[in-house]
What does this fold into?
Amino acid sequence: MAKKKAPKSKAAKIIGLGMQVFGAIGVMKQIKEARGKNDKLELTDAIVSAAAVVTGVALLIRSFREEDAESVDIAAL
It folds into this structure.
């Protein structure tokens, strides 16, 4: 069973989202450089990094949605 993490504040989630955006910018630069050099290994590394950024964004979006769902549940009471 997965250990439940402590809930993050909304500010921490927004900062995390900003970090993911900067990570995406870095990955795009890395992909551009790898294509310019025609380096397949560096391009593969960039693609794996891009997948990590996409996963991080998806996790943050899910946590925002869960927070919204919890606030709706509380409001319904």
Q: What stands out?
A: The mean pLDDT is 85. Residues 7 and 63 are 9 Å apart (CA to CA). The chain has two helices and no strands. The helical segments are 10-37, 40-76.
